[in-house]
Amino acid sequence: MRELDFIEWICSQQEWDPSVVPVGPGDDCAVVVVGGRRLLVTTDQLLDGVHFRLDRDGAEAGGRKAMARALSDIAAMAARPLAAVASISAPKGFSREDAEAMYRGRRVVSEQFGCPMVGGDVAAWDGPLAITVTVFGRPDGIEPVLRSGARPGDAICVTGRLGGAWRTDRHLRFTPRVAEARALAGRCDLHAMIDLSDGLAMDLRRLCKASEVGADVAADRIPVHPDAPDLEAALGDGEDYELLFALGAGQADELVNEQPLDVPVTRIGTIVEGDSPALTGPGGKRKEMPAAGWEHRT
Amino acid sequence: MRELDFIEWICSQQEWDPSVVPVGPGDDCAVVVVGGRRLLVTTDQLLDGVHFRLDRDGAEAGGRKAMARALSDIAAMAARPLAAVASISAPKGFSREDAEAMYRGRRVVSEQFGCPMVGGDVAAWDGPLAITVTVFGRPDGIEPVLRSGARPGDAICVTGRLGGAWRTDRHLRFTPRVAEARALAGRCDLHAMIDLSDGLAMDLRRLCKASEVGADVAADRIPVHPDAPDLEAALGDGEDYELLFALGAGQADELVNEQPLDVPVTRIGTIVEGDSPALTGPGGKRKEMPAAGWEHRT
Description:
The structure is a homodimer.
Chain A: H1 3-12, E1 30-34, E2 37-47, H2 54-57, H3 59-76, E3 80-91, H4 96-112, E4 117-125, E5 130-138, E6 155-159, H5 170-173, H6 178-187, E7 190-195, H7 200-211, E8 214-218, H8 231-236, E9 243-247, H9 249-258, E10 265-272, E11 277-280, E12 286-288
Helix pairs in contact in A: 3-4, 3-6
């Protein structure tokens, strides 16, 4: 099963009333109207052997990453986290010490972001460890930034540096860009945003698809992380959990000049007419963005 | 790891502000205040080999049950479902047809209860199928009914008949008692309620513990389901997804006389001073409620 196709199919099975569910499946968070207020919701799973390894990384790192991944989706909409619930499928032999370590890892992140864990479900089984974290957030004065608002002429920017996260332990200890997203959305009119979980190539493709636009990215502008061996890694490694966003070119120039965040902001390209991103190499040769990036396939 | 002990430990790690989280972990749903309104949240997992068997029961039954189980927690608080998100950990070989069948099963229930699935996460892995469903609800005019409000002298009632659910396919096709709970809470002052997922013995023990009371249950009043071979099965099989609730004796008498629901309501006993439930057999002998019931242990 190809996950992206299935998610696309689910999105086509529209079953929600837009006055109750203004944003359904397919963005980083759904938006649901509760008593006249908008609530953002995202659910995300951390699977042993896929997103981390319990035997190598330990339960505390798992708890930490599970919570941080879900918060990265909240960041992608520039929302403020409110509360979370978690379900834990515990393998045979998962000890009380493991469970408490996982809790501690999760709690460090939840306290840092003011996002208490208010409920959960724990069950033992014969399978590996799986943690699902569902986080809700609220706009709190900032309009949720969707994937779908990019327009031709917009600048494309990223926070931080890309690639190599899983080649070190950076994929376990990243900081979800909640504060950065709110700072950006507070000072700029962000047209579209996504968090980089599966790599720039794939996530920019998603943003382009949602916005029905193309993109021109300059290969030599991509901020390659020192942990990444090459440009390919920066495009396809994934697990960066940085922000990718589109905004007016003038605002992007100011942003890049002023560098108001604790992490660098880099303009990597421009939104254009089209339906998928392209990459211009150092020699000026323009080609389709490689389909690199990380998708689960069964 | 004993799950109940771990959940108790989590509850002891209080980390939430009661003005934001009036009900934290330990009840059927958490209650979170969003923009002055209360939101109910529950998360529940369906694990292949624990709560159903993919090879025997099929993906459609799994989707159906995953959604229905979470809705049963919403029913236990007498809330109205609003929306849901799901995460799916798909085993190798889980086909697109399986995924669509699971979706159909889930959707039958979500349409029946007006609870659209607004988002989700799908990942493939080497483990078995796991589905986590998180449902949000709202009070919608009915005060959420907690586990903790039972008081000595209250009548103890149950809906439906108990036991044998997993001995047939009833555990796959039960109806969460959302409408029944709201009808009951609309006409009676329910002091405490819980849904029967792990069996009367264990779930009554939970209600007693949360309310800091004991209970006297008359063995010959327990409505044993025809699928259950004996009283033990009615006490310990679990997966009934019926409602267990406490209310004033006078209101209980009226309720039992009038039988206003489509399912029978039976008074099975009385809340007393104490800290755990007791069972009085046909011979009048009173003993501690057997510790039967279904708890995962690793």
